């Protein structure tokens, strides 16, 4: 097992596209590290560079103590799982698993032991004698994961491995992957554009945007204090409300009159935006204490809660998370109140977190 260090990675494709501008990552031995970002932000290119499937233009990659810049994929001792299963269609599960080990020339008893171990971990026992066309999508993906496991690599690299599964299976597989990684303790780098997946899986998450890392942190850190306006708008479902504010009389006040507790260390003389999570706001009866006038634009039912979209102070898209028991009709005049602690605050011009 091994940690992975990526230093000043830059990748420009032959057609001139810069996919990775500058990426530094320090991934711990045994860590489940997630790279998260929108389509085209450079996650896959970074992962493929770690795997050796893509040569970086500049920058260094170390796996354990080894500088692997010049090593072909097969010599990097990593296993990669893609969103497409890529099983051999003519081989039964047990032979799909054994294939990479036989290719390495391992003795037969060792091959059998390792296949049995991987089958146990991924619960493939009843499927060992089936060919891929008799496996469901989820089963095929479990076989693909097991095939990565049998090699006992120093690290797993996963590129959106659950994308092609339906929602329920995806949730199950997520749990399996997390459990498996914990049990094996093997370093894993996991690429996704799905923030729920990132939040539920990662020990730490790197948020990428336009070929750069915007933030690295635990799921809680990334949720509580997004490092930039980009991260604030990307993390959370629905994401934070971004509300223009001014500092006046030691208070943080929005144009529509909403008063927020200012966080310590607020800079002066800058244009500021407060990031307020939908759960830190409350829709009230009009005129309720501490509320400002607002109007319900729409309500989105999300199972056990409602997201109210309200128009307040000229901003028509303020989102508020409320329990199902609180009901207001569309167009109803309501109050809007802040219930949380101090919000996070961003500089409008630099787009960075300032307090
Ligand atoms: P996605 O989630 O859509 O896979 P990503 O974050 O993984 O996106 P990359 O696949 O790394 O992003 O691509 C980053 C940028 O590089 C994109 O603009 C993409 O179009 C471009 N790109 C990727 N591969 C190549 C290539 N072989 N040649 C030229 N440009 C490429």
From TrEMBL:
GO molecular function annotations of the record: ABC-type transporter activity; ATP binding; ATP hydrolysis activity
A Pfam family that the UniProt record links to this protein: ABC_tran
Gene Ontology BP, a term: carbohydrate transport
Domain of life: Bacteria
InterPro entries documented for this protein: AAA+_ATPase, ABC_transporter-like_ATP-bd, ABC_transporter-like_CS, ABC_transpr_MalK-like, ABC_transpr_MalK/UgpC-like, Mo/tungstate-bd_C_term_dom, NA-bd_OB-fold, P-loop_NTPase
Keyword Zinc: no
Keyword ATP-binding carried by entry: yes
Alphabetical UniProt keywords: ATP-binding, Cell membrane, Membrane, Nucleotide-binding, Translocase, Transport
GO cellular component, one term: ATP-binding cassette (ABC) transporter complex, substrate-binding subunit-containing
UniProt xrefs under Gene3D superfamilies: 2.40.50.100, Nucleic acid-binding proteins, P-loop containing nucleotide triphosphate hydrolases
Domain ABC transporter: 4-235
Name listed for the protein in its UniProt record: Carbohydrate ABC transporter ATP-binding protein, CUT1 family
Lineage: Bacteria, Bacillati, Actinomycetota, Actinomycetes, Streptosporangiales
């Amino acid at each position: 097992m091994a940690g992975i260090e990526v230093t000043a990675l830059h990748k420009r494709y032959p057609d001139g596209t810069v996919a990775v501008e500058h990426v530094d990552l320090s991934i711990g031995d045994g860590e489940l590290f997630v790279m998260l970002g929108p389509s085209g932000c450079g996650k896959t290119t970074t992962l493929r560079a770690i795997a050796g499937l893509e040569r970086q233009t500049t920058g260094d990659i170390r796996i354990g103590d080894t500088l692997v810049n010049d090593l072909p994929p097969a010599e990097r001792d990593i296993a990669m799982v893609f969103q497409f299963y890529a099983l051999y269609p003519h081989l039964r599960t047990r032979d799909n698993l054994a294939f990479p080990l036989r290719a390495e020339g391992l003795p037969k008893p060792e091959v059998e032991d390792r296949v049995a171990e991987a089958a146990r971990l991924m619960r493939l026992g009843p499927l060992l004698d089936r060919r891929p066309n008799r496996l469901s999508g989820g089963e095929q993906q479990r076989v693909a994961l097991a095939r990565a496991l049998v090699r006992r690599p120093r690290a797993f690299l996963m590129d959106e491995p659950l994308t092609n599964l339906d929602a329920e299976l995806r949730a199950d597989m997520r749990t399996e992957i997390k459990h498996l990684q914990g049990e094996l303790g093997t370093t894993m780098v996991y690429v996704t554009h799905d923030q729920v997946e990132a939040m539920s899986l990662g020990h730490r998450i790197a948020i990428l945007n336009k070929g750069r890392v915007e933030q690295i942190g635990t799921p809680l850190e990334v949720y509580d204090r997004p490092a930039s306006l980009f991260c604030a708008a990307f993390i959370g479902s629905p994401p934070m409300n971004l509300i223009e504010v001014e500092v006046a009389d030691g208070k943080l006040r929005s144009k529509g009159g909403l008063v927020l507790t200012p966080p310590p260390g607020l800079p002066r003389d800058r244009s500021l935006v407060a990031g307020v999570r939908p759960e830190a706001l409350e829709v009230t009866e009009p005129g309720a204490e501490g509320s400002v006038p607002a109007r319900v634009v729409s309500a989105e039912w999300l199972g056990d809660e409602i997201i109210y979209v309200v128009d307040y102070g000229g901003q028509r898209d303020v989102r508020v998370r409320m329990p199902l028991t609180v009901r207001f009709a569309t167009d109803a005049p309501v109050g809007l109140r802040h219930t949380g602690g101090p919000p996070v605050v961003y500089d409008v011009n630099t787009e960075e977190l300032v307090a």
